[in-house]
Amino acid sequence: MRYRCIAISAALLLACVSPAAAEDEPLWSLSSSVNYSVGDYGTGKDTTFIYVPFTLGVKPIDGLTLSLTIPLRLSDG
Length: 77
Fold this sequence. Notes:
Elements: H1 2-15, E1 27-32, E2 35-39, E3 47-51, E4 54-61, E5 64-70, E6 73-76
Antiparallel strand pairs: 1-4, 2-3, 3-6, 4-5
């Protein structure tokens, strides 16, 4: 399951890459990461977390950047 999520995340990033914008158009960006954690967190039972945040940003004018982060958290156990 976790490898499928990582593969889907990588495919989404590659699919969203766009050509460079012209100077008068807003600059768009897309970023992501994969965070993997395993532990019992005081419960005595191991829990696995996979957290994949996607951040979409736009810079419509110099000095201003707007961004939106959409978290995807998968937990197992």
